[in-house]
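A quick word before the example. In earlier lectures we treated sequence and structure as two separate objects. From today on, think of them as two lines of the same record. Here is Uroporphyrinogen decarboxylase written that way.
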Amino acid sequence: MQLKNDLLIRAAKGEAVERTPVWLMRQAGRILPEYRAVRESLSGFKELVETPELAAEVTIQPVDILDVDAAIIFSDILVVPEAMGCTYEMIEKRGPIFPNTVRNEQDLRKLRVADPHEHLHYVLDAIKITKKALNSRVPLIGFAGAPWTILAYMVEGSGSKTFSHARGMLYTNPKLAHQLLRMITDTTISYLQAQVEAGANLIQVFDSWAGILSPAHYREFALPYISEICNAIRNVPVTVFAKGAFFALEDFSKLNCETIGLDWNMEIDKARQQVGPNKTLQGNMDPCLLYSSFDSIQHETIKMLKEFGPHRHIANLGHGVYPDTDPEKVKCFVQTVKEYGTVVGEAKS
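And the structure line, produced from the sequence above:
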């Protein structure tokens, strides 16, 4: 069935659009009281992720409430290590904790390359339920973490300011690091292909901890595996969002993907020069802007839109929306993008 609103897909492909499409990373989540109501009825975050009907419900909430141009399936990048046999716990106000880490060959032997239909079926079921409920109103985005970011959690055992254990492995045991990255990449490729088969209209790869690597290590331990993933995804556009990897923008221009996500530290004009004219850019408003006044949000959003220009741009934040953000401020950001784009389009016609 043809999408009623396909702005995101057309913008990703570089086709003409009437206005800039807009959605937000982490739009399905704690900023919405409706999400909190669902979440508080359950034992925890993981139960929500692993219950397809409820994951679908909270996926659709921001489409209804915030009026964004896309839904992104409610899940987590850490379902991949879990499927591989490296389980995690989500601790409130602390984040993910891995009771068992991967530090040596013996730890590696306990892992498997996961079968998405066996080990991640709940995400695929959530995609199918969401697609049916959306009834082609907007595209549905599927996603996974980039291999380096997943390795960082599996080796470190939690979030970290330095990821010293994970980064240390790249120096002390690069062979083991590549073996683990190989398993993560193989799992991720089959997982994302299954998401597309289940109905995802676009795929995003999140390299959340890209910026903590040196450029040399990023090119050895991260970029080749992201490139493999991009090459393996067919029939839908792919977005790569590597937070902090300003040093790799020129490398990203060579990836077989349609869109490059920018964080708020990246300068738009420089990024456009480095990425080139054949990629769409996504982003890159500072999430903290949404703490400011409505007038300030409107002013800064229009400034951002002018800097990106009307073509090959998907409006978004430069990272996920923060959980204590007022939903009305998010609506202001979304509506400003929509109204500015409409005015610009009418002026041209």
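Notice the following. The chain has one domain: 7-348. We will return to this example when we discuss secondary structure assignment.
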